[in-house]
Write a structure and sequence with these properties.
The chain is α+β, with helices and mostly antiparallel strands. The protein has ten helices and 14 strands. The protein has helices at about 1-10, 40-60, 65-70, 70-80, 110-120, 160-170, 200-210, 265-295, 310-325, 350-360; strands at about 15, 20-30, 85-95, 100-110, 130-140, 175, 215-230, 230-245, 250-265, 300-310, 330-335, 340-350, 365-375, 380-385. The strands form three sheets. It has a five-stranded mixed sheet with strand order 6-5-7-8-9. A five-stranded mixed sheet has the order 11-12-10-14-13, covered by helices on one side.
Protein backbone atom coordinates (compact mmCIF):
# COMPACT_ATOMS: atom_id res chain seq x y z
CA UNK A 1 0.00 0.00 0.00
CA UNK A 2 2.84 2.39 0.81
CA UNK A 3 4.34 1.79 -2.63
CA UNK A 4 0.94 2.30 -4.23
CA UNK A 5 0.39 5.62 -2.52
CA UNK A 6 3.94 6.79 -3.28
CA UNK A 7 3.30 6.08 -6.95
CA UNK A 8 0.09 8.11 -7.05
CA UNK A 9 1.66 11.05 -5.24
CA UNK A 10 3.75 11.75 -8.32
CA UNK A 11 1.52 10.52 -11.14
CA UNK A 12 -2.11 10.64 -12.17
CA UNK A 13 -4.56 9.29 -14.70
CA UNK A 14 -7.02 11.44 -16.61
CA UNK A 15 -9.85 10.62 -18.96
CA UNK A 16 -11.95 13.31 -20.63
CA UNK A 17 -15.33 12.33 -22.04
CA UNK A 18 -16.25 15.77 -23.36
CA UNK A 19 -19.27 14.57 -25.28
CA UNK A 20 -20.85 13.38 -22.02
CA UNK A 21 -19.61 16.36 -20.04
CA UNK A 22 -17.45 14.25 -17.70
CA UNK A 23 -13.77 14.48 -16.88
CA UNK A 24 -12.33 11.53 -14.93
CA UNK A 25 -9.00 11.74 -13.17
CA UNK A 26 -7.01 10.16 -10.34
CA UNK A 27 -5.29 12.59 -7.98
CA UNK A 28 -3.68 12.53 -4.54
CA UNK A 29 -4.01 14.59 -1.39
CA UNK A 30 -1.89 14.95 1.73
CA UNK A 31 -2.58 16.51 5.14
CA UNK A 32 -0.60 16.45 8.37
CA UNK A 33 -2.25 14.71 11.33
CA UNK A 34 -2.71 17.30 14.12
CA UNK A 35 -3.50 16.23 17.71
CA UNK A 36 -4.05 12.65 16.52
CA UNK A 37 -7.16 13.76 14.62
CA UNK A 38 -6.94 11.31 11.72
CA UNK A 39 -10.49 11.95 10.50
CA UNK A 40 -9.84 15.65 10.06
CA UNK A 41 -6.58 14.94 8.22
CA UNK A 42 -8.37 12.45 5.96
CA UNK A 43 -11.09 14.93 5.07
CA UNK A 44 -8.49 17.57 4.32
CA UNK A 45 -6.46 15.17 2.14
CA UNK A 46 -9.57 14.18 0.16
CA UNK A 47 -10.45 17.85 -0.29
CA UNK A 48 -6.94 18.52 -1.63
CA UNK A 49 -7.26 15.59 -4.04
CA UNK A 50 -10.58 16.90 -5.34
CA UNK A 51 -9.09 20.34 -5.78
CA UNK A 52 -6.30 18.79 -7.86
CA UNK A 53 -8.93 16.97 -9.96
CA UNK A 54 -10.64 20.24 -10.81
CA UNK A 55 -7.25 21.76 -11.65
CA UNK A 56 -6.63 18.90 -14.08
CA UNK A 57 -10.00 19.50 -15.73
CA UNK A 58 -9.30 23.24 -15.88
CA UNK A 59 -6.00 22.62 -17.69
CA UNK A 60 -7.66 20.13 -20.05
CA UNK A 61 -9.92 22.86 -21.44
CA UNK A 62 -7.28 25.39 -22.44
CA UNK A 63 -3.73 25.97 -23.58
CA UNK A 64 -0.96 26.44 -21.00
CA UNK A 65 -0.74 30.12 -21.97
CA UNK A 66 -4.43 30.73 -21.31
CA UNK A 67 -4.23 28.83 -18.02
CA UNK A 68 -1.20 30.82 -16.86
CA UNK A 69 -2.95 34.07 -17.75
CA UNK A 70 -5.98 33.15 -15.63
CA UNK A 71 -4.47 31.78 -12.43
CA UNK A 72 -6.26 34.45 -10.41
CA UNK A 73 -9.64 33.21 -11.66
CA UNK A 74 -8.67 29.58 -11.08
CA UNK A 75 -7.77 30.14 -7.43
CA UNK A 76 -10.43 32.69 -6.48
CA UNK A 77 -13.46 31.47 -8.45
CA UNK A 78 -12.86 27.75 -9.02
CA UNK A 79 -10.60 26.29 -6.33
CA UNK A 80 -12.29 28.25 -3.55
CA UNK A 81 -15.20 25.79 -3.91
CA UNK A 82 -13.96 22.81 -6.00
CA UNK A 83 -16.69 20.49 -4.69
CA UNK A 84 -19.22 22.41 -6.81
CA UNK A 85 -17.64 20.84 -9.90
CA UNK A 86 -17.30 17.26 -8.59
CA UNK A 87 -20.04 14.79 -9.57
CA UNK A 88 -18.84 11.77 -7.56
CA UNK A 89 -15.56 10.41 -6.25
CA UNK A 90 -14.16 7.28 -4.63
CA UNK A 91 -11.06 6.58 -2.57
CA UNK A 92 -8.63 4.16 -4.21
CA UNK A 93 -6.30 3.94 -1.24
CA UNK A 94 -5.20 5.72 1.91
CA UNK A 95 -2.34 5.50 4.35
CA UNK A 96 -0.90 7.29 7.38
CA UNK A 97 2.80 7.90 6.84
CA UNK A 98 5.24 10.03 8.86
CA UNK A 99 2.54 12.03 10.67
CA UNK A 100 0.69 12.68 7.41
CA UNK A 101 -2.44 11.16 5.89
CA UNK A 102 -2.24 10.36 2.17
CA UNK A 103 -5.11 9.46 -0.15
CA UNK A 104 -5.53 8.56 -3.82
CA UNK A 105 -8.95 9.53 -5.19
CA UNK A 106 -10.72 8.88 -8.47
CA UNK A 107 -13.03 11.78 -9.34
CA UNK A 108 -15.66 12.58 -11.94
CA UNK A 109 -15.60 16.32 -12.70
CA UNK A 110 -18.61 18.11 -14.18
CA UNK A 111 -16.87 19.34 -17.32
CA UNK A 112 -20.03 20.94 -18.68
CA UNK A 113 -20.44 23.14 -15.59
CA UNK A 114 -16.76 24.07 -15.65
CA UNK A 115 -16.97 24.95 -19.36
CA UNK A 116 -19.97 27.17 -18.73
CA UNK A 117 -18.23 28.93 -15.85
CA UNK A 118 -15.17 29.61 -18.00
CA UNK A 119 -17.27 30.65 -20.98
CA UNK A 120 -19.32 33.08 -18.91
CA UNK A 121 -16.06 34.60 -17.68
CA UNK A 122 -14.87 34.89 -21.32
CA UNK A 123 -11.87 32.71 -20.51
CA UNK A 124 -12.56 29.57 -22.50
CA UNK A 125 -12.37 31.46 -25.77
CA UNK A 126 -9.37 33.52 -24.67
CA UNK A 127 -6.61 33.53 -27.22
CA UNK A 128 -8.85 32.87 -30.24
CA UNK A 129 -9.32 36.55 -30.91
CA UNK A 130 -6.01 37.73 -29.44
CA UNK A 131 -2.43 37.17 -30.65
CA UNK A 132 0.18 35.34 -28.59
CA UNK A 133 2.86 37.90 -27.71
CA UNK A 134 6.46 37.74 -26.53
CA UNK A 135 8.32 40.75 -25.05
CA UNK A 136 11.92 41.82 -25.59
CA UNK A 137 12.17 45.09 -23.64
CA UNK A 138 15.50 46.39 -22.36
CA UNK A 139 15.49 48.90 -19.51
CA UNK A 140 17.90 51.54 -18.21
CA UNK A 141 17.99 54.14 -15.46
CA UNK A 142 20.89 56.50 -14.68
CA UNK A 143 22.01 54.07 -11.96
CA UNK A 144 22.66 51.41 -14.62
CA UNK A 145 25.93 51.47 -16.56
CA UNK A 146 24.28 49.61 -19.45
CA UNK A 147 20.70 48.66 -20.39
CA UNK A 148 19.42 45.54 -18.67
CA UNK A 149 18.03 42.72 -20.82
CA UNK A 150 17.54 38.96 -20.55
CA UNK A 151 18.40 37.75 -24.05
CA UNK A 152 21.48 37.82 -26.22
CA UNK A 153 25.20 38.03 -25.71
CA UNK A 154 26.40 39.39 -22.34
CA UNK A 155 22.84 39.58 -21.03
CA UNK A 156 22.57 40.91 -17.50
CA UNK A 157 20.38 40.16 -14.50
CA UNK A 158 16.98 41.43 -15.49
CA UNK A 159 13.88 42.77 -13.81
CA UNK A 160 11.98 45.23 -15.94
CA UNK A 161 9.41 47.42 -14.20
CA UNK A 162 8.13 48.58 -17.58
CA UNK A 163 7.62 45.06 -18.91
CA UNK A 164 6.02 43.88 -15.68
CA UNK A 165 3.52 46.76 -15.78
CA UNK A 166 2.73 46.37 -19.49
CA UNK A 167 2.38 42.59 -19.20
CA UNK A 168 0.02 42.88 -16.23
CA UNK A 169 -2.31 45.25 -18.06
CA UNK A 170 -2.29 43.12 -21.22
CA UNK A 171 -3.10 39.97 -19.25
CA UNK A 172 -6.04 41.82 -17.68
CA UNK A 173 -7.24 42.44 -21.25
CA UNK A 174 -7.02 38.70 -22.06
CA UNK A 175 -3.86 38.87 -24.17
CA UNK A 176 -1.80 35.69 -24.20
CA UNK A 177 1.86 36.24 -23.25
CA UNK A 178 4.58 33.64 -23.80
CA UNK A 179 8.18 33.45 -22.61
CA UNK A 180 7.82 36.20 -20.01
CA UNK A 181 8.21 36.24 -16.25
CA UNK A 182 10.85 34.34 -14.27
CA UNK A 183 10.78 31.20 -16.47
CA UNK A 184 12.21 32.76 -19.62
CA UNK A 185 13.43 30.51 -22.43
CA UNK A 186 17.15 29.94 -22.85
CA UNK A 187 18.01 30.87 -26.47
CA UNK A 188 20.94 28.43 -26.53
CA UNK A 189 18.53 25.54 -25.87
CA UNK A 190 17.08 26.23 -29.32
CA UNK A 191 20.53 26.83 -30.87
CA UNK A 192 19.74 30.54 -31.21
CA UNK A 193 22.59 33.01 -30.80
CA UNK A 194 21.86 36.72 -30.51
CA UNK A 195 24.45 38.79 -32.35
CA UNK A 196 23.53 41.86 -30.33
CA UNK A 197 20.85 43.18 -28.02
CA UNK A 198 19.10 44.57 -31.13
CA UNK A 199 19.07 41.26 -33.04
CA UNK A 200 15.42 41.22 -34.11
CA UNK A 201 15.81 38.19 -36.40
CA UNK A 202 16.97 36.01 -33.52
CA UNK A 203 14.16 37.37 -31.37
CA UNK A 204 11.68 36.39 -34.09
CA UNK A 205 13.16 32.90 -34.27
CA UNK A 206 12.88 32.47 -30.51
CA UNK A 207 9.36 33.87 -30.62
CA UNK A 208 8.41 31.27 -33.21
CA UNK A 209 9.78 28.52 -30.94
CA UNK A 210 7.52 29.87 -28.19
CA UNK A 211 4.50 29.76 -30.58
CA UNK A 212 4.14 33.56 -30.50
CA UNK A 213 2.23 35.40 -33.23
CA UNK A 214 4.20 38.59 -32.69
CA UNK A 215 7.15 39.89 -30.72
CA UNK A 216 7.31 43.32 -29.10
CA UNK A 217 10.84 44.67 -29.20
CA UNK A 218 12.17 47.90 -27.74
CA UNK A 219 13.52 49.79 -24.75
CA UNK A 220 12.46 51.75 -21.70
CA UNK A 221 14.56 54.43 -20.02
CA UNK A 222 14.18 57.02 -17.30
CA UNK A 223 16.30 60.05 -16.40
CA UNK A 224 16.41 63.14 -14.20
CA UNK A 225 14.64 66.05 -15.88
CA UNK A 226 16.02 69.55 -16.03
CA UNK A 227 12.76 71.13 -14.89
CA UNK A 228 11.46 71.01 -11.33
CA UNK A 229 8.01 71.08 -9.74
CA UNK A 230 8.30 73.35 -6.73
CA UNK A 231 10.90 71.90 -4.41
CA UNK A 232 10.69 68.39 -5.88
CA UNK A 233 12.78 66.91 -8.66
CA UNK A 234 11.09 65.71 -11.83
CA UNK A 235 11.92 62.57 -13.76
CA UNK A 236 11.30 61.68 -17.40
CA UNK A 237 10.64 58.22 -18.83
CA UNK A 238 10.36 57.14 -22.44
CA UNK A 239 9.29 53.77 -23.84
CA UNK A 240 9.79 52.97 -27.51
CA UNK A 241 8.34 49.66 -28.74
CA UNK A 242 7.86 48.00 -32.11
CA UNK A 243 5.82 44.90 -32.86
CA UNK A 244 6.86 42.40 -35.55
CA UNK A 245 4.96 39.58 -37.17
CA UNK A 246 6.88 36.45 -36.17
CA UNK A 247 6.28 34.67 -39.48
CA UNK A 248 6.84 37.46 -42.01
CA UNK A 249 9.17 39.75 -40.08
CA UNK A 250 6.97 42.72 -41.00
CA UNK A 251 6.99 45.62 -38.54
CA UNK A 252 3.30 46.03 -37.83
CA UNK A 253 3.06 48.44 -34.88
CA UNK A 254 5.14 51.28 -33.45
CA UNK A 255 4.54 52.89 -30.08
CA UNK A 256 6.38 55.76 -28.40
CA UNK A 257 5.22 57.24 -25.10
CA UNK A 258 6.66 59.58 -22.48
CA UNK A 259 5.75 60.36 -18.90
CA UNK A 260 6.88 62.65 -16.08
CA UNK A 261 6.92 61.97 -12.34
CA UNK A 262 8.08 63.95 -9.34
CA UNK A 263 9.83 62.76 -6.21
CA UNK A 264 12.30 63.79 -3.52
CA UNK A 265 14.51 60.74 -4.14
CA UNK A 266 16.17 59.65 -7.36
CA UNK A 267 15.42 55.92 -7.25
CA UNK A 268 11.76 56.49 -6.43
CA UNK A 269 11.52 59.08 -9.19
CA UNK A 270 13.03 56.77 -11.81
CA UNK A 271 10.66 53.99 -10.78
CA UNK A 272 7.55 56.15 -10.74
CA UNK A 273 8.33 57.62 -14.15
CA UNK A 274 8.88 54.17 -15.69
CA UNK A 275 5.69 52.70 -14.21
CA UNK A 276 3.68 55.73 -15.32
CA UNK A 277 5.05 55.52 -18.86
CA UNK A 278 4.47 51.77 -18.94
CA UNK A 279 0.81 52.24 -18.09
CA UNK A 280 0.39 54.64 -21.01
CA UNK A 281 2.42 52.32 -23.25
CA UNK A 282 0.19 49.35 -22.39
CA UNK A 283 -2.96 51.30 -23.29
CA UNK A 284 -1.40 52.37 -26.59
CA UNK A 285 -0.32 48.80 -27.42
CA UNK A 286 -3.69 47.30 -26.53
CA UNK A 287 -5.53 49.73 -28.79
CA UNK A 288 -3.14 49.28 -31.72
CA UNK A 289 -2.85 45.50 -31.45
CA UNK A 290 -6.62 45.06 -31.18
CA UNK A 291 -7.08 47.20 -34.28
CA UNK A 292 -4.38 45.36 -36.24
CA UNK A 293 -5.49 41.90 -35.15
CA UNK A 294 -9.16 42.47 -35.97
CA UNK A 295 -8.13 43.46 -39.50
CA UNK A 296 -5.78 40.52 -40.02
CA UNK A 297 -7.29 37.71 -37.94
CA UNK A 298 -9.70 36.73 -40.72
CA UNK A 299 -7.27 37.19 -43.60
CA UNK A 300 -7.71 34.25 -45.96
CA UNK A 301 -4.85 31.75 -46.04
CA UNK A 302 -4.32 28.46 -47.85
CA UNK A 303 -2.43 25.57 -46.27
CA UNK A 304 -2.40 21.77 -46.21
CA UNK A 305 -3.97 19.47 -43.63
CA UNK A 306 -2.35 16.04 -43.23
CA UNK A 307 -4.47 13.39 -41.49
CA UNK A 308 -3.55 9.86 -40.41
CA UNK A 309 -4.50 7.14 -37.93
CA UNK A 310 -6.21 3.78 -37.49
CA UNK A 311 -9.80 3.16 -38.59
CA UNK A 312 -9.11 6.07 -40.87
CA UNK A 313 -11.95 6.37 -43.35
CA UNK A 314 -14.96 6.68 -40.99
CA UNK A 315 -13.03 9.06 -38.75
CA UNK A 316 -11.95 11.13 -41.73
CA UNK A 317 -15.57 11.38 -42.89
CA UNK A 318 -16.70 12.36 -39.39
CA UNK A 319 -14.12 15.15 -39.22
CA UNK A 320 -15.05 16.46 -42.66
CA UNK A 321 -18.67 16.59 -41.52
CA UNK A 322 -17.59 18.81 -38.62
CA UNK A 323 -15.88 21.13 -41.09
CA UNK A 324 -19.39 22.11 -42.22
CA UNK A 325 -19.89 23.69 -38.79
CA UNK A 326 -16.82 25.90 -39.28
CA UNK A 327 -17.85 28.98 -41.31
CA UNK A 328 -14.23 30.15 -41.43
CA UNK A 329 -13.44 27.30 -43.85
CA UNK A 330 -13.98 28.73 -47.33
CA UNK A 331 -13.07 25.66 -49.34
CA UNK A 332 -11.39 22.24 -49.08
CA UNK A 333 -9.61 20.37 -51.88
CA UNK A 334 -8.69 16.67 -51.64
CA UNK A 335 -5.06 16.34 -52.80
CA UNK A 336 -4.19 12.78 -51.70
CA UNK A 337 -6.02 9.95 -49.94
CA UNK A 338 -4.96 6.45 -48.89
CA UNK A 339 -6.15 3.68 -46.62
CA UNK A 340 -4.84 5.36 -43.44
CA UNK A 341 -3.86 8.91 -44.45
CA UNK A 342 -5.02 11.91 -46.42
CA UNK A 343 -3.77 15.31 -47.56
CA UNK A 344 -6.34 18.12 -47.86
CA UNK A 345 -5.82 21.71 -48.97
CA UNK A 346 -7.67 24.15 -46.69
CA UNK A 347 -8.71 27.68 -47.61
CA UNK A 348 -9.38 29.37 -44.28
CA UNK A 349 -10.21 32.80 -42.85
CA UNK A 350 -7.25 32.83 -40.48
CA UNK A 351 -3.83 31.27 -40.06
CA UNK A 352 -3.01 27.56 -39.54
CA UNK A 353 -2.63 28.04 -35.79
CA UNK A 354 -6.15 29.45 -35.51
CA UNK A 355 -7.48 26.59 -37.60
CA UNK A 356 -5.74 24.07 -35.32
CA UNK A 357 -7.23 25.70 -32.21
CA UNK A 358 -10.70 25.60 -33.74
CA UNK A 359 -10.39 21.92 -34.74
CA UNK A 360 -9.25 20.97 -31.23
CA UNK A 361 -12.62 22.14 -29.90
CA UNK A 362 -14.37 19.46 -31.95
CA UNK A 363 -15.11 16.26 -30.02
CA UNK A 364 -16.20 12.80 -31.14
CA UNK A 365 -17.83 9.83 -29.42
CA UNK A 366 -15.29 7.14 -30.28
CA UNK A 367 -11.98 8.87 -31.05
CA UNK A 368 -9.90 11.93 -30.35
CA UNK A 369 -7.56 14.25 -32.23
CA UNK A 370 -3.86 14.84 -31.67
CA UNK A 371 -2.21 17.78 -33.41
CA UNK A 372 1.42 16.84 -33.93
CA UNK A 373 2.67 19.81 -35.96
CA UNK A 374 1.57 23.30 -37.03
CA UNK A 375 3.63 25.34 -39.50
CA UNK A 376 2.88 28.21 -41.87
CA UNK A 377 1.93 25.74 -44.62
CA UNK A 378 0.90 22.50 -42.91
CA UNK A 379 -1.23 21.23 -40.01
CA UNK A 380 -0.70 17.58 -39.07
CA UNK A 381 -3.42 15.71 -37.15
CA UNK A 382 -3.55 12.09 -36.02
CA UNK A 383 -6.70 10.22 -34.99
CA UNK A 384 -6.25 8.61 -31.56
CA UNK A 385 -8.26 6.09 -29.55
CA UNK A 386 -10.53 7.37 -26.82
CA UNK A 387 -10.42 5.33 -23.62
CA UNK A 388 -13.70 4.29 -22.09
CA UNK A 389 -14.45 5.68 -18.65
CA UNK A 390 -14.93 3.10 -15.89
CA UNK A 391 -18.18 3.22 -13.94
CA UNK A 392 -17.90 5.76 -11.16
CA UNK A 393 -18.55 4.85 -7.56
CA UNK A 394 -18.53 6.75 -4.31
CA UNK A 395 -20.11 9.81 -2.81
CA UNK A 396 -20.74 13.40 -3.63
CA UNK A 397 -17.76 15.59 -2.86
CA UNK A 398 -17.32 16.89 0.67
CA UNK A 399 -17.30 20.55 1.44
CA UNK A 400 -13.79 22.02 1.08
CA UNK A 401 -11.79 22.24 4.29
Amino acid sequence: MALFISFWVFTGFAFAAKDSGIFMTVTTGKRMVVNHNIQQAKQGAVSDALSAAVQNAFSELMTPQVLASNLDFLYTEILSHPSDFIITYRSLGEIEHKSAFLVAVESRVNLEMLQKTLTDAKILDAGKDKPFIMFFISEKTPSDDLPRYWWGKDSTSYKSLAEETIAGKMIQNRFMLVGNGPQRPDPSFYNITFISVDDINSARTLGKEMKADMIIFGNAASSLATNRMGGEKTFDAEILLQAYDVNTGEKIISSKVQAVAKSNTDEEGYTQALVKAAGVSAEDLIEKINSYWSRNLRKEQTFDLKLSGDNFLPRFIALKQRFKDMPEIINTLQKEIGSNSSLVQIQYKGNPSRFANAVMLKTFDSFGLEITDVTDTLVTIRFIEKQQAPAAEGSKAPAPQ
